[in-house]
Amino acid sequence: MAEAALRLDGVTSGYGEAMVLRDVSLTLLPGEILTVLGKNGMGKSTLLKTIMGFLPPREGRVHIHGRDVTRLPPHRRAGGSVSYSPQDQAIFQDLTVGENLRLGLRSDRGAAAAVERVTAFFPFLAQRGRQPAGTLSGGEQKMLIMARALLSNPRLLLIDEISEGLQPSVILRLAEVLRRECAARELTILIIEQNLRFALSVASRYAVLVRGEIVDGGRVAPGVEARIQDHLAV
Ligand SMILES: Nc1ncnc2c1ncn2[C@@H]1O[C@H](COP(=O)(O)OP(=O)(O)OP(=O)(O)O)[C@@H](O)[C@H]1O
Ligand SMILES: [Mg+2]
Fold first, then answer.
1. Which of 40, 46, 190 is the best mutation target for the ligand 1 pocket, counting ligand atoms within 8 Å of the beta carbon and taking the most?
2. In this structure, CATH architecture of domain 1-81+156-166+186-234
3. pLDDT single digits (tens) 7-54
4. What pTM was computed for the model?
5. Which atom of ligand 1 is nearest to the CA of 39?
6. Of 152, 190, 213, 162, whose CA–CA distance to 5 is shortest?
7. Ligand nearest to the CA of 36
8. Of 15, 21, 32, 198, which is the most buried if we count CB atoms within 10 A?
């Protein structure tokens, strides 16, 4: 079996005395897209913070690309191979669109080609290079964030609720971009979502988080939407 891009074994973590995640185990193989779904406050963002090392697990292990990173600080977890798009992420309002994009580059080598590849996904970015990023619309800012995350050519991408507040056509575009990047470069994605349609249109597997525990999961297939909705309803 191929080495997992991401593996969590029995991870328990939280804030101070309060444990939010309980005994969470999951595995993502290279090129897979897993969506983690759950209602507000169930621990979805806490899961990503724990994977990134902003929150040390109380119990369990985290492996990224075969390496045990459980005790490593965020900056030593995976070099530049992991890209994390937090829920409350903002762009640099006073920098231009082009400057914001360049912050996503890991080196100057191949920069022009990388910018070209990513701006092809969101063509408006190429025309707005000199515009202050803070003057982009909310949806455009989300696309800039996604473009910046992809520019570093990550092998593993963690995305926290990117679809919030986006119009349907932009959501469709994002789904297409993520699927394409996965297929073309064996990018592995863990995507946190509340938009079930979007999540199931990109992911090949899902997991449902209820009060910090994974209560259901499996392949995305016809019929799973109703099943997941039942979990989200209670
Ligand atoms: N820094 C913190 N200190 C203490 N408790 C926290 C902290 N951050 C989150 N929590 C608590 O942990 C629980 C899970 O929060 P988390 O942000 O992981 O939920 P979520 O599933 O991402 O929710 P949402 O869908 O609203 O983003 C919540 O009860 C929250 O209040
Ligand atoms: Mg959250």
1. 46
2. 3-Layer(aba) Sandwich (3.40)
3. 999 999 999 999 999 999 999 999 999 999 999 999 999 999 999 999
4. 0.93
5. 25
6. 190
7. 1
8. 21
